[in-house]
User: Fold this.
Amino acid sequence: MANTDSVTLPKARPRPVFRNIGFGELSNYRLPIPGVASIVHRVTGIALFVALLFLLAMLQMSLKSEAGFEAFRSIIWGNIFGKLVLIGLLFALIYHMVAGFRHLIQDANQWLDLATARSTAFASFAISIVLTALVVWRLC
Amino acid sequence: MAASSKFITEWWLQRISAVVIAAYALLVIALLLINGTPNAAQWQSLFANTGFKLATLLALVATAYHGLVGALHVWPDYVKNRAVLAVLNAYTWVVAGAVVLWSVYILFGLSAIAK
Assistant:
């Protein structure tokens, strides 16, 4: 050992580089599934809020008379557009509720470790899709 | 009321309203899954029931409040323009107020489901 100075030095690790990303690079960055669960909870909440007055109009129509009920049915179930809107809102409601339960549990400082946050985010989507499908199947 | 305690009250009320809405939604979903699609008579007799009317009113008032708090918190995260934000906040208050008033009218003002 001729050079004793060099052997005691730890091997230099590459230092992390932080920089701003360009818009074109955004697609290289994937939002982790708990992040997806969170943003979809927000989007479904806003969608449901925006739909509230329409839904009340539908409720009023359905309760006004027998003819009103039939008119309401033909709007939401008589054509493909109405069906898609109804199924979308149904999923929004069910997902917002299921993910909301998950967030309530997280409010109590549970399920916060990464593995559980991932698996419960995935489960929220799975449960919501299955429950929505069940209701739609029952409406058919 | 101090600002911090107002936010804590709001935080709790938003979560309590969430549980109220979820309980009602699960009840309606269970009824749908058990009984299938209702016809006009079944649907309207369900809403003629006073207990169901009160549960529906409670759920809709909870929805108005829950949506009000939720939307007022979400808008400023994405909308930085003050004028646009003011319009969205005003819209949110109008919708929340309208939901409460309209719900009372629908549940207690329609002759088809009056007792």
In short: The first helix of chain B runs from residue 3 to 35. Chain B has a mean pLDDT of 96. The two ends of chain B are 42 Å apart (CA to CA).
